[in-house]
Amino acid sequence: MAQIGNITLPDFPLLLAPMEDVSDPPFRAVCKANGADLMYTEFISSEGLIRDAAKSRQKLDVFDYERPIGIQLFGSDVESMRESAEISTLAGPDLIDINYGCPVKNVACKGAGAALLRDIPKMVEMTSAVVKATHLPVTVKTRLGWDDATKNITEVAERLQDIGIQALTIHGRTRVQMYKGDADWTLIAKVKENPRIKIPIFGNGDIETPQKALEYRQRYGVDGIMIGRASIGYPWIFREIKHYFETGEILPPPTLQERMEVCKMHFTKSLEWKGERLGIFEMRRHYTNYFRGLANFKPYRMRLVQTESPEEVYNILDEVAGSLVYAD
Ligand SMILES: Cc1cc2nc3c(=O)[nH]c(=O)nc-3n(C[C@H](O)[C@H](O)[C@H](O)COP(=O)(O)O)c2cc1C
């Protein structure tokens, strides 16, 4: 069992990564249905929450069937992070996660996300303020360091554990790397091996297959794995990894019918949560991912991204399932 404060997770949990514009409630619903053990919201701006911006507030929506679920916050100001942790706690998640990993310019260059890796005293102060602001467990997601010269994750892990975080997820890249090169899990393993570290350490970066998940589990000794991009359009990754861990066998890929049904479920949840107009519009970015590798999908995609009618979306998805074959 992995324990995060009062939250008990299965042995070696699989976490769905927080992903902006992806890991919203509709997407989380399909990942939960396929075995994600712990999920997070998209990152939410602390300033946005304090301003009560509609976009930030809506991201606070969490549902009972999603539990355990964490709300992820980012910001550059200690007091705003404290206040936004209080606001987030009222939304009823199981934990609060702090983002110290986001590398993108308009976050990191404004002193938030991965920028805190260059200012450990402020990171400690911010984390401590959040820990004190909520009765919920607080977790952190971060990277190896700012750049190759300052891979300070070992120090970061000790300092953050000392002030009370309950788990740490490490993406095996630096800020400067952004998403380039391969994720390096050797430093993640070092953090895990440190006898001072008692909290769960979750590894993240480039896990795309059950085989790689098992290899990294065994080689790097982490307490669980967080999966991001491999789940986009492919929520089956969670159940495939679990099945492989349990049996050593690879599940057959989802059938076209299953792909269509899960895509429909995602769409239905989008309509429910976002309303008809936005639900239809935002679902458009997901179709290619669900039907990747299918010959002749393009004309169906063209129709899916043009229609404004929910009934037509369902009808086209039925047609897809009835008429296409895998390219390979
Ligand atoms: C589209 C997208 C959005 C992301 N948004 C967030 C975010 O909101 N918060 C966060 O901590 N990480 C975010 N990330 C980083 C992922 O959580 C994860 O660390 C990264 O994708 C590496 O894991 P992977 O190789 O399994 O994808 C995002 C990544 C992607 C691809």
TrEMBL record:
Signal peptide per UniProt: none
Q: What class of enzyme is it?
A: oxidoreductase
- What's the EC number here? 1.3.1.-
Q: Cite the DUS-like FMN-binding domain residue spans from the record.
A: 15-318
**Catalytic activity field:** a 5,6-dihydrouridine in tRNA + NAD(+) = a uridine in tRNA + NADH + H(+); a 5,6-dihydrouridine in tRNA + NADP(+) = a uridine in tRNA + NADPH + H(+)
**Annotated positions binding FMN:** Q72, K141, H171, G228, R229
Cofactor(s) for this UniProt protein: FMN
What keyword terms does UniProt attach to this protein?
Flavoprotein, FMN, NADP, Nucleotide-binding, Oxidoreductase, RNA-binding, tRNA processing, tRNA-binding
Q: Which GO terms describe its molecular function?
A: flavin adenine dinucleotide binding; tRNA binding; tRNA dihydrouridine synthase activity
Asked if Nucleotidyltransferase is a keyword of the record, the answer is: no
Has the keyword NADP been applied to this entry?
Answer: yes
Q: What Pfam families is this protein classified in?
A: Dus
The active site annotation covers C102
Which InterPro entries does the record associate with it? Aldolase_TIM, DUS-like_FMN-bd, DUS_fam, DusB-like, tRNA-dHydroUridine_Synthase_C, tRNA_hU_synthase_CS
**What family, per the record?**
Belongs to the dus family.
* Function comment: Catalyzes the synthesis of 5,6-dihydrouridine (D), a modified base found in the D-loop of most tRNAs, via the reduction of the C5-C6 double bond in target uridines.
Task: Specify the protein name.
Answer: tRNA-dihydrouridine synthase
- Species for this entry: Adhaeribacter rhizoryzae
